[in-house]
Amino acid sequence: MSFVRRDCRFSRRAVGCWLALVLGLAAGPAAPAVADDPGVASEPVFTGLTVDGRTLSGRIVALSADRITLADAEGARQEIPFRSLVKLSRPPSSRPDTADGSHLLFPDGDRLRRVIVGATKETTLDVQSHSAIGKLTVPLDSVLGLVLTPPSEAEAFDQLWDRVRREPRSTEVVWLANGDRITGGFLGMDDRAVTLQVDGKPVEIDRTGVVAVGFDPAVVSYPRPASDFLELTMVDGSRLGVTGARLGKGQIEGTSRFGQSIRFPVADLLRVDPRTEAVTYLSERKADAENYVAFLGPTRSYRVDQTVDGHPFQLGGQSYERGLGTQSRAILGYRLKPGDRRFQALVGVDDLAGPLGSVVFRVLTDGKPQFTTPAMTSHDVPRAIDIDVSKAKLLILVTEFGERGDVRDLADWVEARIIR
Hints:
By secondary structure, this protein is mainly beta. It has 3 domains: about 10-25 and about 290-420, NPCBM/NEW2 domain (Jelly Rolls, Sandwich); about 45-95 and about 230-275, no CATH class; about 100-220, SH3 type barrels, CATH 2.30.30.100. It is built from 2 helices and 33 strands. A 10-stranded antiparallel beta sheet has the order 4-3-2-1-5-20-16-17-18-19, with no helix packed on it. A 10-stranded antiparallel beta sheet has the order 9-8-7-6-10-15-11-12-13-14, covered by helices on one side. A hairpin with a 4-residue loop joins strand 18 and strand 19 (about 260-265). It is globular, with a radius of gyration of 23 Å. The protein starts with 11 loop residues before the first helix and ends with a strand.
């Protein structure tokens, strides 16, 4: 759907006309605490960001169903409710080795990295993690895909991961090392073969030649918890949604979204993302309207949780999982909802853009400019956005031409979120 003439440039009048059309599109309590061991402090020091933009840091010394407690270097404690916290994180030492072991994909970005995938047993899959999580019995209907033989090169792995996670399919798909693919109904797997039903007959595929298996997304069951929960990212790159999280004797325990109890050392924890009603990511809200204007060549639509050319976000030397990837010139419109209070994001040109990409980022509410950057390149420090949207009806994100047209304009709106 186009709301702006393809030959127009950015102007308040143009956005105002577009805004009028967009506006025409349409006019729980926290869980009880679980006791932990308050006397055990974690070794890693985490940096946190609260919903009101404050930063804090410390070691995790307590964790319950609705709050987390940090202790600073002097031992002073600060208790933070999950609904007041955007994230806790610490820098990774390096990119996890994705070529070592196999990988499980779940919906919504959850995954288990560097695992040994065993055999299926009726409705479950045996998995042995290289990390301290250990052995798990995973319901087969919660798995979106398996990467059994990952490529050794990082870019090839990212492309395969993206294919298994996002490629539309209405049945199971097996990708082979020789480049072929076989589709059919999944019947099972052991250490020797993957078995599909193809044209009504079982077909065994030598597992040594299988690169990945993708399951039909329509039959995957991975419900979001009804209560607040945590997304816990580990140093090996695994990430799981966990309810009932608690800390005791240096170990984090809880129940995964697929119903299995998990336990691992807090020293293996890399990041905590509380998932509450207080924070909504735009990557989980479909844009209510979008418009693209190419400088010369074809336009490219925005992408969710990856750059516009399909890579994981790399901004300012750091990796990010959530966000919107755009290219100049793009306009995205989001209708704001009652209770939406602030818009926050970190913007910049992706590290992979190289020296040629140049982008101007703009944010408007109800057609009124609220934030504008100068032309930015991948060498510029990313800029943080924090805008009051409590009285607005529409949020507009504009990725505008900088210098050199749209050449390598890999524009990242990482962790773009609404604070409610």
